[in-house]
Each structure stands twice: as structure tokens, then as C-alpha cells.
């Protein structure tokens, strides 16, 4: 059972490469896939080699930034990004899925995290129909992202309060 789907951005979530000219558009059907998975309680995140400010701005511009928790942007390994997302969400890696257009990235994740389900970008539209993405939808599952966001805000506030009181 998949608890979190981790998206690559360029040529996976959207068509085009953000760093080349900033002109990207969502792949067909992406909004519906994001909504469907979110409604089922499947969390979503990002592992991308993009500038964090530019990517965050584009996600907001496209009106989909709210779907993604603990996104990881940077030039390091996607495997490391996936591990960090799992740690931040407190989810075992065997409950993660990763989708990317790049065969090397998929190979790397499959090799170093063989328990993670890995998908090609061309499989995007079919993801909600796959058995591992099927859930009995409940009131609780449909609010899982909001609950995770609340937890993140509480933890961030505690960390900030602790660091202020230590001074």
C-alpha cells in the first residue's frame, strides 16, 4: 500500500524543463491525478533538481503547491531526497512510490531503495487505477494531508520556541 508518491518535476509533473526558460505546463490529466490521490489520503512530495525558489513559485503559479509536503530540491541524489522525505514524514520507504521521466533516476532509486515502487512519467494517468493506489476512502484518509501539515506546523513551532528559549 502506497502512503506517499514522490514526484519529479521536469518532464514528469509538467512538460518542459523549468531551468531552461521557465515555460512549463502541467502534463495532461495531472490535476485530476493529484486530486484523486489526495482525496484517497495518499500524501505527495517532490524530489527535483530544480532551484527551490523557482520551482516553488511555479508550483504556486500552477495552483498545485498545496498538494506537496516536505519537497526536496537540490542537485544531490534523488535517493537521498527520498530518504529525507520518508524520515520527515515518518513513513517507511516500502510505503513510498517515485515517478520520474529519467531512466537513470529510476534505476538509481530501484537499486538503492528496491522497496520503493518506481514508475515512468508516461504512467502518470494510470496511477490512480493501479491496485497499490487503491484505498477505501474515509473521512480520515481524505484529510491526511491537512493532518500532516498541522503536525509539521506544530513541530516547526516547537523547534523555533526551543531555539529561542535556549538563547
Automatic annotation (TrEMBL):
NCBIfam families in the record: HAD-SF-IIIC
Pfam families attached to this UniProt entry: HAD_2
Source organism: Paenibacillus motobuensis
Protein name (Swiss-Prot/TrEMBL): HAD-IIIC family phosphatase
Signal peptide positions (record): none
